[in-house]
Amino acid sequence: MGKLTAFPVLFTMLMSFRVITAKTKGKNPTAALVAHAQTTSTSLSFFGLVNMVDDPLTVGPEQPSKLVGRAHGFYASSSQEKIGLLCTLNFVFKEGEYNGSSLAVLGHNPTMHVYG
């Protein structure tokens, strides 16, 4: 891509797609509890909880929206003080311009943080 042109392209690509919220119950759940610590049930932050996800990756947030891939990964409650998740996702593209590509994302999700 040359110089710093990759970042704007990547940012534009990420802003164009949406991961549908994980479904934990019902037919075909997209998230599953895979581990927890002995103290998770008594922790105010759910420290030690680990969930695996396989969520639809769509062009937009509205339903129906074209499915272009899957978001595979996990999230874990990694803070003992307040709810905060360690999130890892692999965006696996199966349709459209990015078909056959994947993008790995690692980050912190402060789920209860109020912005503004």
From TrEMBL:
Residues 1-22 form the signal peptide. Keywords: Apoplast, Secreted, Signal. GO terms for cellular component: apoplast. It is found in: Secreted, Extracellular space, Apoplast. It comes from the Eukaryota. InterPro entries: Dirigent. The keyword Secreted applies. Its main location: secreted. Pfam families: Dirigent (PF03018). Homodimer. Belongs to the plant dirigent protein family. Dirigent proteins impart stereoselectivity on the phenoxy radical-coupling reaction, yielding optically active lignans from two molecules of coniferyl alcohol in the biosynthesis of lignans, flavonolignans, and alkaloids and thus plays a central role in plant secondary metabolism. This is Dirigent protein.
